[in-house]
User: Fold these one by one.
Assistant:
Number 1:
Amino acid sequence: MRPHRSGPESRYAGPGRREPADDPYAADDDEYTDDDEYEEEAEPITAGEAARVGLRQVSQLTGRDPSGVISVQPTGDGWRVGVELVEDHRIPASTDLLGLYEVDLDADGEVLSFRRVRRYQRGKGEVA
């Protein structure tokens, strides 16, 4: 039986309570504190990383060949990436059917949404 203690350590004494040295989880609290904060506050991805992630994700989601990234815009909580995909390969290649997709990414690079914005024939895009 443990002797009764007074002072700040007395809160651990008594039935159903463990001494700090007896608590197998006490050391774990200090061990994870710094790591958990680091993981939660990771740096947001850069515009270049967002472009690469957006291109890869849209290509994987649609199963189509990417033509390239055509825009990267910051949003309130991440990035909006414009990706051009080849939707239908034709001969000659100048008549391929292309699709313009936008993918919204959060600050960690996870896909929030994606959508096809327009579809057009290569060589007949908008002239500015």
Number 2:
Amino acid sequence: MGTNVKSTYHELMNEAASHGYDIASLEFAQYLDSQDEFKEYRELFYVPRKKTLPQTDLSLVDGESESVYLLGNSLGLQPKQSRQDLMEYMDKWAEMLVFIYKYNLP
């Protein structure tokens, strides 16, 4: 383990112990979620249901539950604002043709 990983691991161990949690417990995970300073941003993104993802074995999971997205080298979750922004740009393109590139780049 690198130094940063060891440090983070020990910080998590100490945090869990200070609140009486096992580091691998659901309760500790829920506690960490409650402390997440970025949690309000979650509502700005589409989070697919497991049933919509390819290769999901619905005999093993609840298809209605949200997926867990851990792939860090991709486009990521789609921001909800993207659809509206794209449609506005498409409308401008329809009105301005090629001139959109000169006068109306976002």
Number 3:
Amino acid sequence: MFITLSYILKPFEATGHDWPWMAHYMKCSSSIIGQKWLLTAAHCKHIPVAAIVYGNDDRTFGKVAEIKTKYPHPKHQNGIPGYDIMLVEVSVKNKLIIIYKCSF
């Protein structure tokens, strides 16, 4: 399956649960990459947030996981391109559950 550039540039509105691996880290989006791990941008490390929201398309509703530890890339420097990546460990009672829907 190939995705054409015209498809990528064509805007569309996502319907409910189109992106189940996404979590909301205040103004930064993040991806759920493990049972208690998120991947986001290192420039978000100074955002004063104590938890992330996941499991819903709305940033104000969903399941909440408390942030345990942030691990920005050690070479990241604000304002300088590169190394803008950060792992975020969350503390959850249950594991972050992701259900993938394959359509190919």
Number 4:
Amino acid sequence: MHTRSAQLSPSATLSASTSLQRRPAARQAALQCRCLLSRFFPQQLKKPPELKALLDAIEGTNRGFSTTKEQKATILSCVEALEQIQRQSGRSTDISDGVNAVWKMLWTSEKETQFILKNAPLFRTQAGDVFQMIDKASGRLQNAILFPPAGCFLIDSSCEADGDARINFKFNKATFRVSGKDYNLPPFGQGWFETIYLQDDVRVAKDSRKDTIVFVRDGLPRDLSQECSD
């Protein structure tokens, strides 16, 4: 099985297996205040402090399912600040050209993903990394939740660009692989997601169901079904 870890700056290193660590209320308030202020005084910096504030805020949330209300408010405030910075920078072309990659999920507000991550032990397994692969040239999109050492929940979709930042998608196939067996599930929908912030190796997206996802780059586009193999 392929094992990769995200490469972030020392101050922003995050671990998918980090246990829940509640931050002091004062630090949460300071993070939220910083992000709220930045919405009114946006800064066009190469590496804006709002990005570090976001990565600090999602640390210890178990990729979303352990997020408290206070943490979620801070995270979403930081996301709004970064979205405003991206919009005012006029760097939409960078978003269009930069999303083709495999992305490792750091945090999500999506309930279904949170449920799988939290309840994987009920199925006698542990949730591993969560990836999204975007290849606009081939019109292919994959989303995968890994269950080490050789299992996964994999969704294959077709996709097409809709402007610089939005990608429309339609589910084609869903496969649950466990103990060397594949269980195919019927396709179940379509939608869109929009990259609202892209800086270096960090990407923030919102989707048609009003969820927010934070990713870190994990290399060039590749077939995620290979991640499920020994």
